[in-house]
Amino acid sequence: MDKIKMITPLVEIDGDEMTRIIWKQIKDILLEPFIDLNTDYYDLGLPNRDKTDDQVTTDAANAIKKYGVGVKCATITPNDQRMNEYHLKKMWKSPNGTIRAILDGTVFRTPIVIDKIKPVVKNWTKPITIARHAYGDVYRGTEFRIPGEGKAELLYTAKDGTQMRETIYDFECPGVLQGTYNKDTSIESFAHSCFQFALGRKEDLWFSCKDTISKKYDGTFKAIFERIYNESYKSAFEDAGITYFYTLIDDAVARVIRSEGGFIWACKNYDGDVMSDMISTAFGSLAMMTSVLVSPDGNYEYEAAHGTVTRHYYRYLKGEETSTNPVATIFAWTGALKKNGEKDQNTELVGFAGKLEQAVISTLEAGYCTKDLSNLYEGLTPMSLSTTAFLEKIRENL
Ligand code: NAP
Ligand code: MG
Questions:
Q1: Which of 93, 309, 371, 390 to mutate to test the pocket of ligand 1 (most atoms within 8 A of CB)?
Q2: pTM of structure
Q3: pLDDT tens-digit profile of 203-241?
Q4: Residue closest by Cα to atom 33 of ligand 1
Q5: Which of 117, 148, 308, 398 has the fewest Cβ atoms within 10 Å of its own Cβ atom?
């Protein structure tokens, strides 16, 4: 059989621990037998980030800007414990944070819904997509631990030297302080990405934040969404029969739980981080959540929403067989291959990606799964397999 050819290279970003093992298995078992993979490879495994002083992360993000599409494996975000475990030179920043800061844009997270697996929230019959603003706020914040008595102020100096200054708090004891920011340009591109994504999927768009408390910060988000909707999308939404609506985040949470799903929920950076874990867990498993970063200039980075599954990796290192779910990582690859194929008008590649997704779904529908899903099935006794056996089963169906 002739292998499928690729035209533009796909930016391949390797990662850490269990997901790094799965990454290689997916390529060996499901991709390379069928595709002549043309990738621009970046090793973001923690040892190589340390070795390159994290330059490799910046290079990978810039490669996505150059070629348009990337696929990323989960990576470790270093903390104190990782500093010792990997003997790091420095506590490198979150690679996802670095890549998002370079690409800007919005992360869309959608659960992969399987007929035989029922969500914890019984009335959710359709997927809920979280659109997470991937720039700024606490992820680019500046923090102080305040040692004791003293005054904290907020100060802005304009280019012409004029200043705005306000007291934040007159500390009488130790405490904490944090400065966060966002930019109109980034919020605008967040809004455009959300409206366009909603039109593409023909689903309602909800946006929520807390403008009653944060009148200027969150109020700006709300106002920008409203303006861009009225200026650019209102009539297209009406033609598509979909709606945009804003509500406070606490009201949104209540409505989401009571809804039947089938809409896009746009959230600020932190809200999106938290709510996407809630949504994916309630739909079944963190390992069934796909994630794509869409940048305002039309670049795409696909990944799984979960981490490097450290607990499974330590078992793997001891020689134990693991049953880690590879589905979200497979869908990261299929999403990226599809997008790469669409951009190159490579119908064979797009077709293959679609068939691989169908093979995954039909394998799960037939009751073959990894351990995390085995007690979520209804109306069928599933067969829980090791990661390797599960991938082989998908290959058989493919
Ligand atoms: P995690 O890797 O997502 O795993 C948390 C737990 O969720 C696992 O122990 C496992 O539960 C379950 N799980 C997650 N993915 C699974 C899968 N594919 N198959 C089966 N079960 C799965 O989160 P973490 O343990 O908090 O973080 C581990 C490392 O990942 C950290 O170093 C963190 O910095 C990094 N991280 C990276 C990203 C990213 O690159 N996008 C995102 C989050 C975290 P059981 O153990 O109960 O089976
Ligand atoms: Mg999170």
A1: 309
A2: 0.87
A3: 999 999 999 999 999 999 999 999 999 999 999 999 999
A4: 76
A5: 148
